Amino acid sequence: GYVIDRIDALRPRPDLWTFGGDAIHLPADSADAIALWQEWKFIADPIWDIPVFLAIGNHDANIYDHDWDGIGPFRASWPDLPQNGPDGYKGVVYSFRYQNSIFCVVNTNLYFPATYSARFQVDRAQRDWLATVLDTTTALHRFVIGHVEAWPPSNGGGQASLQWNPAARDSF
To answer: Which pTM was predicted?
Structure first.
């Protein structure tokens, strides 16, 4: 609510906003995730006239030892996000153009149902798609948004960054 109030008070009003993930926290199942997304939208209602572009976070994606993947509820809750990402990633990985800028959103929280676990990485399908988008755009400014940072924060941050796999991180 605090962030929404701050955005709502901005003058001039922003043309759009991006959100880097972890909007909801560890839903118990798909129905709970959809309910939490609805609650999040209710909280954001004062600025609903400003388009929002979200990256899915590890908590949103429910990647912590559960037998379901939160990407389905994310897609169901945000059907109007661009659908121009690579196959298998539509609505979760996407790009959009605004004025002289391009924004590319990637999924850094890859879920593996066989082990109910995740790997913090931008996989080859996303990297290939991203390279094509960035190589062909005429946009002056280029932004790539993902939930997990490429390098840990200055406090070390443990393994919650793309650092756990340096080769994949460096390819990204």
So the answer is: 0.91
